[in-house]
Amino acid sequence: MTLADFAHRGAASSYAFLDASAKRELRRKMLKAVCVPGCQMPYASREVPIARGWGTGGLQVSLTLVTPKTSVKVIDQGADDSVNAASIRRFIARVAGCPVTTDTCTADLIQSRHRIPEEILRPDQILVLQVPNPEPLRPVQPNMSVARQMHADADYGRMWLQLYEEIVRSGRVMQGSAYPSLVNGRHVMTPSPIPRWDVPKLHMARHLTILCAGREKRIHAVPPFTRVEPLVFDDIPYRVEEHANLTCAKSRARGFFMNELPQADGSAIHEISDSGYGEKSIRLRDGETDVRGQTWYRDGRMT
Amino acid sequence: MVPRRADDLMTLALDPPRLVETRPLVEVQALSLRYGEVQALRDVSLNVMPGEVLGVVGESGSGKSTLLRLLNLEETPDTGTYGLDLAGLPDNLFSLDRYARRMLCATRIGIVYQNPHLGLLMRHSSSGNVAERLLVAGERRFATLRAAARSALEASEFPLERFDAPPAELSGGMQQRVQLAKAIALEPALLLLDEPTTGLDVSVQALVLDTLKQLQAARAITMVLVSHDLGVIRTMADRVVVMRGGRIVETGLADQVFQDPQHPYTQQLVHAKL
C-alpha cells in the first residue's frame, strides 16, 4: 500500500473544510470526552478561517460532525442574526453543503455561543458550545500543571472557598456566568459562559453537549442523562437570574431569559434572548398555530 | 546521638503516665533524604507520645524544617518509615498516594509555618482561610463553616471583630494566630510548628506561646515544635531533640537537656544561649 492509497481512502472524510486527519483527531477526543464527562481532553486544534477566540473550537466540532443532511443552527448569545452567528452559519453551509435553520426544533446540530436554547433538545440533537476558557480552576490556580493535578485529585476546595468568599463579601454568590458545576459527581467544569439560567438545562439532559475551546485546545462533554450540579452550599440554594417576571417587549413571551435594552429615558425594556423562540412567539401572537417546542422553563420555573 | 536511658527512665517513673502507658503517636524510623549533593537528613529516628510536645532544635541547615516537611508528608524520603498510630493508616505513611496524603494532612495533621505566606491565602478572609481546611475535608454547610471558623479563631485568641479581614491587613502575630486556627480547626492528631514565633517581637511571641500552651493544656494536642530559639523550646517542650548536619545528636527530657547537656554541640548551644 502506498502513501497515495492512504490519501485516497481518506478522501471521503476530507469534506467540510477540515481534512480527514483533523476530523479523526477531533472524533477521538470527542469520544474520550464523552467517556469521562466533564474532563478536559487536549486536542490538536486546527486553523479555521475565523480568529482564535471567535468560536474556532465550536466550529471545528461542528465541521467534524456535520454531514450534507445535517440541519445546522448557529446562535450567538441566543441570537440567530448576530454577525458572528450568521457568518459561521453561512460558512458551514458553504463548505458542507448542508441545510441551515433558525428553528431549534428542526435543527440536528446547534452551535452556540454562551446560551442554551429555551426549547428542550431531543436525544438526537447535539449542542456544541463555544468555550473561551475551559479551565474552572484558573481563577484560583494560575499554574496549569498544578490545576491538572487538582483535577486528578478532585481537589476543589479552593473553588468552594471562592464561593465562600463571595458570600462573605457580597452576601451572595456573584458568579453570573460560567458557574462552576460538578459533572457526574467527579469533574468540575466551566459550562461555557452560559448564564446561571442555563446551567440546570444541562442536568440530566437528553441531548449530548460538547464544549470546545479552540484557542485553549480543550474539549469536554456532557453526555445525555448526566448529572450537572452547580457548586452550592447545602444551606444556600442555587439561584438563577430573576427573569421569571419579565415580559418580552416584542413577543410578549414571559418567564424566559431576557436581554435588557436600556432606553433613552433611563428605563429599560426586555427582549427574549433566544431569538428563534421569540420569533415563534410573535408568530403565535399573530395567529399562527403553535409551532413552539416544549421549554425547560415554564412560567419562569424549571420544569 | 548520646543515649540518656537511665535518666529518661527515672523521670518517666516519676511522672506522666501518658508517657509510659501508651504507644507513640508518631513513629519515625531511619529517615534519610538527600537534595542533590546535600544530605539533608541522615538516619533520623524518633517517637512522639500522644499529648507530648517534642521540641526540635539546631542551627540553620541542620535538617529541622526538612524533618517537619517529611512529617507533613510534603516530601518522600530516600529511605525510612513514618507511622501515625491512628486507625486505618498504613505502617508507613510514605506508602500512601498523593491523594491519600493530601486528605490525611487536611484532616489529621496541622501545620503552622514560620512564613505566614506559605500557610495562608493573604487576599482571602481570615475566616475563609480557616474554612478552607473544612472545605477540603468535605464540609458543605455555610453556617457550619462560619461557626467552625469562629470557634477555631476564638481558640487561638484571634480578635473576632477582624473575623473576615484578610491576613494581608493583619500584623505578624495575628497572621500566626490565623495559621494556628487553621491548623487546629479539625482538631488534628498532630500539630507541626515550624518556628511559629520567629520574626515576632518579644511581647507578641509571649502571647503566641501562651496561646499554644493553653491549647495544649485544653486539647492535649501532640505537637512537634521546631525552633532555633532555645527559650521557646524550653517553655513549650516536654522532650527535646537536638539536630546537627541532618542527624539527631542528642535527645532527652527538656529539663535534662538544658540543665545537663551531654553532646558538645548541645553544650555549645545551651551555653551560647545562657
Question: Describe it for me?
Answer:
- The complex is a heterodimer of chains A (303) and B (274).
- By secondary structure, chain A is of the alpha/beta class.
- Chain A has helices at 3-9, 20-35, 56-65, 83-96, 144-152, 157-170, 199-202, 275-285, and strands at residues 41-42, 72-76, 109-113, 126-130, 181-183, 187-189, 208-213, 218-222, 228-230, 258-262, 268-272, 297-298, 301-302.
- The longest helix of chain A is centred in the first third of the chain and has 16 residues, at 20-35.
- Chain A is globular, with a radius of gyration of 20 Å.
- A 6-stranded mixed β-sheet of chain B has the order 5-6-7-3-8-9, sandwiched between helices. A 3-stranded antiparallel β-sheet of chain B has the order 2-1-4, with helices on one face.
- The radius of gyration of chain B is 18 Å and the shape is globular.
- In chain B, helix 6 crosses helix 7 (142-155) and helix 7 packs across helix 8 (172-184).
- The A-B interface holds A 149, 152-155, 157-158, 160-161, 164-165, 167-169, 233-236 and B 98-99, 102, 106, 121, 124-125, 127-128, 131-132, 135-136, 140-143, 145, 164.
What's the quick description here?
The complex is a heterodimer of chains A (303) and B (274). By secondary structure, chain A is an alpha/beta fold. Chain A contains 8 helices and 13 strands.
What's the topology here?
The complex is a heterodimer of chains A (about 300) and B (about 270).
Chain A: H1 3-9, H2 20-35, E1 41-42, H3 56-65, E2 72-76, H4 83-96, E3 109-113, E4 126-130, H5 144-152, H6 157-170, E5 181-183, E6 187-189, H7 199-202, E7 208-213, E8 218-222, E9 228-230, E10 258-262, E11 268-272, H8 275-285, E12 297-298, E13 301-302
Parallel strand pairs in A: 2-3, 3-4, 4-7
Antiparallel strand pairs in A: 1-8, 5-6, 5-9, 7-8, 10-11, 12-13
Chain B: H1 5-14, H2 17-21, E1 26-35, E2 38-48, E3 53-58, H3 64-71, E4 79-84, H4 98-108, E5 109-112, H5 116-119, H6 126-136, H7 142-155, H8 172-184, E6 190-194, H9 202-219, E7 222-226, H10 230-236, E8 239-244, E9 247-253, H11 254-259, H12 264-273
Parallel strand pairs in B: 3-7, 3-8, 5-6, 6-7
Antiparallel strand pairs in B: 1-2, 1-4, 8-9
